[in-house]
Amino acid sequence: MANARQGSIHLVRIAGIDLYLHWSWFLVAVYEIQSRKGSYSSVLWNIFEYLALFLIVLLHEFGHALACRQVGGTANRIMLWPLGGVAYVDPPQRPGATLWSIAAGPLVNVALFPILFGALFACRSMGLAQTMPDLYWLVRSVLIIDVSLLAFNILPVYPLDGGQILRSMLWFVLGRARSLMVATLLGFVGIAGFAILAVLQRSVWVAAICVFMVMNCWGGLRHARDLLRMSKLPRRQGFACPSCRTAPPRGDFWQCGLCGGTFDTFQTGAICPYCSARHDLTTCLDCGQQYPMGQWTGDPTASFHHFTQ
To answer: What is each CA distance from 234 to 36, 127, 251, in whole angstroms?
Structure first.
């Protein structure tokens, strides 16, 4: 979903993070609650169970977002929809920062496990399985939901958290582009397994997950190819992106927002050679972050004649 606001409802803003709920969530909620009718003495308990799923997914996504901010990245939107949640995170393009931003989500589920297990143990010790069976089965179901979401998310299949964690770990060894290439190719293998499972179980939900994963894997593969082409370009020494520490490429890759001309901003000192417009921010072509030209040299007082050499 390119636009988190399209077809969604803005629920609340928490810690600077906007929470959106896709309209289809309500349709699926009604279907799921009705399909489990009879599991409890009242449908109200089914609603509590579905809301618990909503809360666990939300906490998982906040884990991603807050971890991303902790390492200096940007995270200001979370979208919840029938297949789960999406935290729109943009961590600094370094393997360690990306690894922590991704791993923090599953770690929330790990942290919830002893809490929910302790609650289930307490319910069993107090005999609630007999005296208050609805409450006992609700706690038990929520524990199963948490464990199931954790097990699913840590599968090493891109774009699941496990696949992105694998990619981040490979990044230390293979580099940014090749690690993404390997992760997406392995992701297609995992998707094939999910597709077989969808056919065997005749599951519409598993099939929908497969479609979502194929779209993300294909996008990741194309991005990996672009990164590989970018990595082969000659680099301008003496400069480095403050975020990803990558030297900028040589060539006319920057476009003037005023006249549309393309030029090498590091050769001209962030001044368009066609219309003389001065650009306050310079975009890193590798990670997409923007910084003043002076920060690329590590010396904010650097003079522009240095950039033209």
So the answer is: 60, 70, 9
